[in-house]
Amino acid sequence: MDYFMAFRETVYLILGLQIIFYSVRVVLKLRNVKVSSSRIFLRSEIFLRFLKDLFLFSFSCIAMAILLYFWWITNHEAFRISGGLVSILAVTLLLLSVRNLKLTLEE
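Now predict its structure.
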């Protein structure tokens, strides 16, 4: 049994449910275009954090893919574990970015 895989999938499940919760709240707040665009303008520092976290999410996904390709080529377990840890970091950054977008749009 692969305990690291079970841990990684549990973290994915926990973070994924939170991402869905925040995303639904963001979509509901984006219905009023004028209010949401003015909030983005007025809370630009939180919106910039959203963009920064989204950029770091993209960068960590690229790093994860490279590590997993190295694991596939060399079959060293260190690459697999490192790729799994970077993937957990990527999902966490995605959660933070969606949360920052929600904070930008809330009243």
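Residues 15-105 form one domain.
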